[in-house]
Specification:
39% helix, alpha/beta, 448 residues, single chain, FAD/NAD(P)-binding domain
Length: 448
């Protein structure tokens, strides 16, 4: 189907769906955006229902392409690194990078979503339909089935070009699976999460605001990200079952002793802990693998609907925003949706698989490796190599977070080579000894 022959249907007015709608509307394409929720500009966000977001370079690049950063920048709080709270009470900032710009930004999901929707509403080519649920896709009939909750009616529109950005539990994906058009494999993590609040203290941030706070406890962890109202959103990640788990806490009359024992300094700043722990939902985590991402040349899965990942690299939103940017770039000089959708999947699939793997690996790093002296030595060594060879050696974390020009798959590939370099240098550098500069140069220039 040619571009512009029919309106583009986008299912889901979350972050990715709305950003994509803005990008398409900027091109003058007619966009019909359908969202099952009420208009978030007129309703309050649900508490405890989404992990706080980290906006990094890939997401910023997509927002800049849509000329949206002037709206988003007031919502951002820069975080320079992880502030690690050790079991003994000591706390130390571990910077994310070595350069001034190498920071990530805390941003509230609800505020960001509202800003994107407000921007989209300014485009005459875009129509927003809230409280409209996608019932399913009728591939054989070329129809998209929708339900208007306010009017209590179900109706159909031509399928045309339909892009599903309706999240990890995508209704469109489920409909395509039922029709035999795609296959899906979901890998559930055996750890869940629950969101809590550290409120302002006398009107100010109760903790250092320009850091992501982490309380790593090897088998589990607590994190906290700052918000513009001077509060922090704290998230507990804990096994679902076992001796130290959500199930074990549910069997106790009071979660407070567990928190006081494991996260004493944070617990002292959480006056509403008992109520929030009881009332806030316990969220599930997992990875979604879908194949293919498109069907019959007319339907495309994008973002979490195609490749949801766990949140431990702070890249779920950034990867989805990068999807939007790449898809928009593919429209340049092309006129056929089927070809665009196929090329989009071929381009993005290896990168989606790479960031899914790296996100899982980063959970182990955050909850336990940061406590290990050897891990800290290797990090220091990696930073030294970056200082000496900045055009060749970039730590994998930095490639993912600060270098959108380096694809996720390339960051993963180069990361493996760099680990091998670190292994060799660590084996040949005695504890407290000097790095052999010629050996380092030889290894880096040969491998990278």
């Amino acid at each position: 189907m040619a571009l512009g022959a029919q309106p583009v249907n986008i299912i889901g007015a979350g972050l990715a769906g709305t950003l994509l709608a803005v990008l398409l509307a900027r091109r003058g394409l007619a966009v019909q955006l359908y969202e099952r929720r009420a208009d978030p500009r007129r309703t309050a966000a649900d508490a405890g229902r989404s992990i706080n977001l980290a906006l990094a370079a890939r997401g910023i690049a997509a927002l800049e392409r849509a000329d949206l950063m002037q709206r988003v920048r007031p919502l951002m709080i820069a975080m320079r690194g992880r502030l690690v709270h050790e079991p003994g009470g000591a706390a130390m900032l571990r910077p994310y990078g070595q350069r001034e710009h190498e920071v990530i930004h805390s941003v509230g999901r609800a505020a960001l979503n509202r800003a994107l929707i407000e921007a989209l509403a300014e485009y005459p080519a875009a129509a927003l339909h809230f409280e409209h649920s996608c019932v399913g896709v009728r591939l054989d009939e070329g129809l998209l089935e929708l339900h208007d909750r306010a009017a209590a009616r179900t109706y159909c529109v031509p399928l045309g070009a339909t892009i599903a950005a309706d999240g990890a539990g995508s209704t469109v994906r489920a409909s395509l699976v039922a029709a035999g058009a795609v296959r899906v494999r979901e890998e559930s993590l055996d750890h869940d999460y629950k969101e809590l609040t550290i409120p302002p203290l006398a009107g100010r941030f109760a903790l250092e605001p320009h850091a992501l706070h982490v309380w790593p406890r090897r088998g589990f962890m607590l994190i906290a990200l700052p918000n513009t109202d001077a509060s922090f959103t704290a998230t507990l990640f804990l096994p679902r079952e076992g001796p130290v788990s959500f199930a074990a806490l549910a069997a106790q009359p009071d979660p407070q002793p567990f928190f006081a024992r494991e996260f004493g300094d944070a617990t002292a700043l959480m006056p509403d802990l008992r109520r929030e722990f009881r009332e806030h939902p316990q969220g599930r985590l997992g990875t979604v693998h879908t194949r293919p991402w498109h069907a019959r040349g007319g339907v495309l899965l994008l973002g979490d609907a195609a490749h949801a990942i766990v949140p431990f690299h702070g890249q779920g939103m950034n990867a989805a925003f990068e999807d939007c940017r790449v898809l928009d770039e593919l429209l340049d000089g092309r006129h056929d949706w089927a070809g665009i959708f196929g090329e989009f999947e071929a381009t993005r699939r290896p990168n989606a698989e790479a960031i899914a793997r790296m996100a899982l690996e980063n959970y182990a790093e955050m909850r336990e490796h940061v406590l290990d002296a050897r891990f800290q030595r290797r990090q220091a060594l990696a930073l030294e190599l970056e200082r000496r060879f900045p055009d060749r050696f970039i730590p994998r974390y930095a490639m993912v977070m600060f270098h959108p020009e380096i694809a996720y798959a390339e960051a993963l590939r180069r990361g493996v080579l760099q680990q091998e370099i670190l292994d060799t240098l660590e084996a040949r550098t005695p504890p407290g000894g000097e790095l052999d500069p010629e050996l380092a140069r030889s290894l880096v220039t040969t491998a990278l």
